[in-house]
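Lab notebook, entry 462. We have the chain sequence and a SMILES string for pyridoxal-5'-phosphate, and the next step in the workflow is to get a structural model of the bound complex before anyone spends time on docking refinements. Request logged below.

Task: model protein plus pyridoxal-5'-phosphate, output structure tokens.
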Amino acid sequence: MNEALQKYVEKANQVQAARQRYIREEVKKWRFDTIAVHGTYSVSEAIENNQGAIIEPMFLSTAQAYRDCDEMEAALTYQIPTWGYTRIHNPSHGYLKDTLALLDGYNTGVETGCFVAASGIAAIAATVHPLLAHKNGETVNFVACAQIYGGTFQLFNVRWMEEQGIECRWVADPNNLDEWKSKIDKNTRFLYGELPSNPGLSFFDLKKVCDLAHEHGLPFIADSTVATPALLRPIEHGADIVVHSVTKTMSSGGLTIAGAVIARKNMVCNIPNDALKADFAMYCMLWPNRDFGGSLSPLHAILVLNEIRTLRTRIDVLSQSSMKVAKFLEQHPKVAKVNYLGLESHKLHELAKKYLWLVDAKYDAQYGKDINRFGHLLSFSPKGGMPASRQVLDGLKRIWLATDLGRIKSSATLPAISTHQQMGEEARTLAAIPGDLIRLSVGGEHPDDIINDLDQALSKVK
Ligand SMILES: *Cc1c(COP(=O)(O)O)cnc(C)c1O
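Result returned:
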């Protein structure tokens, strides 16, 4: 290595070390809300580099310039931290990914990394791709619970299984460990699950499934979109990789499609690739996500960052409203079934109670102790099957009929004809999504107004 290049590497190492020290000695000592509000954006960084701007800057530049060829070579051979070109990385992504890595790693004692992508699905695609790499006709497979988001089902079932011949082995009951076990063999690359699931509100014993994955030397990937780190940090229970559609619950404003992956460093994995295991998120950012091009716009990185600052309190309020709405629906004469993990009638309520806690409730002046919260998503079936469900949805006046969730504005949909339509009936049965199931994402309106809208729509069912 030439001397000038060596100097750039040394300087970069010093900057990195100072930054790591700031994170270790300051940021990691803060409570969840403070990390959500500030992330790693320090006062000195603002004043020295960003004209004192108190909000993290949007770097809308496509590319980064270098002082000379030595610096460019050091950067583009990844010997120094760089962003180079926004398809690979961008400083505005950096603020978002640092914050998300810290929030999903909060109180876990685990070192985490993160990369952000153009959508939740782009994040999932860039995550599973390197884990399914195979050479010379080698057979590989993966095992996933069937209760997952329709788009993920499509990615796994059509793109991977039908088009690429990589077998996805579906688990119908993720609480049956023997079922998981029976599907793992020497060619299995990872296990995958979503909890709570969209839209069925299914749940499983995360720690047990993670332990099982590790017994077989495999990573466990959890889609934690609906819970967010305000309620669940899967890494604490052993998960190796957490995927989020940041589009959804994490950002309530509805201006952005975005995804993120948070991974533990030095993760368990049976693929002989040291860089992948050491820092999976960094690996995905530098290679698969770069090569597939699912890059997040820096504008949207800052838009969602601004929403995450209030994540904990927002999820608390939405969870309390959802509980009220779920209880209203449960006692309604025209409703056959309600799925909400907070209801004692839900068969997985006791299990969900072990995992879903409002983060830092014990430091909250209002609570002062640990409390369960169950999120903003629920689903229900009115009496009368699919025709009744359509009547309820058509009768809503204020709740939006839209294939969206996590918004500050309540929305509802019929997954069988929208988000989970391409899955087909057979897969929906496996995933426990009946045709008449209405998904309701409870927003920030007063819960009485949400209830009144549901009540008048239900009253129209003949
Ligand atoms: C919406 C969703 C995704 C996909 O996210 P996009 O941002 O729409 O690409 C993945 N998982 C879950 C649970 C979702 O709800």
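Notes for the group: The radius of gyration is 23 Å. Worth checking against the assay data. The chain has two domains: 90-308, 311-458.
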